[in-house]
């Protein structure tokens, strides 16, 4: 995995060096569709080029943001094209293996209906799910303008942080990767804890229901 990521990093650097702003936009588009291409490589490296005067800060920011938004919209429309019947069939056939039911789906969609904007914004700041958050937005048929607004805010903030770090560190921009790895690990630990808590509550509830039924 480490070797693969290093190869992706070298390829991303070469593409940015060769294609400039268009390369940045293309990579950020692909980063949303194929998460192994990390934005924490693309934007900091571009930032290092800004620090040497080879690229313009505003140009890099705009290119990166446009590319990321294009990728987010693509995933959003994938969610839109998936019918609710197909989702419900999946929960009926396979949800039980993950302790999920149609009620869980309904509750999730209800929460997304109420807090979808905030969830999209926060999701765009989380490396673990920043690309995938567009899918439930599409499944929920979130209004496109609302989706674009919160996605743009979250994406812009994420890109600014990475780009600014690259400008500040210059040739030492790879140091950003260690900070992002730590941040991502914290996110995964929190998500794992939440999932474990959900499973515990679900199993406990099922046992209580079985006891009451008996």
Which properties best describe this structure?
single chain, 214 residues, mainly alpha, 9 helices, elongated
Structural class: mainly alpha
Tally of separate helices:
9
Oligomeric composition of the shown chains: single chain
Distance between the termini: 50 Å
What's a concise summary of this model?
This protein is 81% helix and 0% strand. It has helices spanning 2-19, 21-33, 39-51, 57-81, 84-94, 102-123, 134-139, 144-169, 175-213.
Describe the model.
This protein is mainly alpha-helical. The protein is built from 9 helices and no strands. Helix 2 (21-33) packs parallel to helix 4.
Q: How is the secondary structure organized here?
A:
Layout: H1 2-19, H2 21-33, H3 39-51, H4 57-81, H5 84-94, H6 102-123, H7 134-139, H8 144-169, H9 175-213
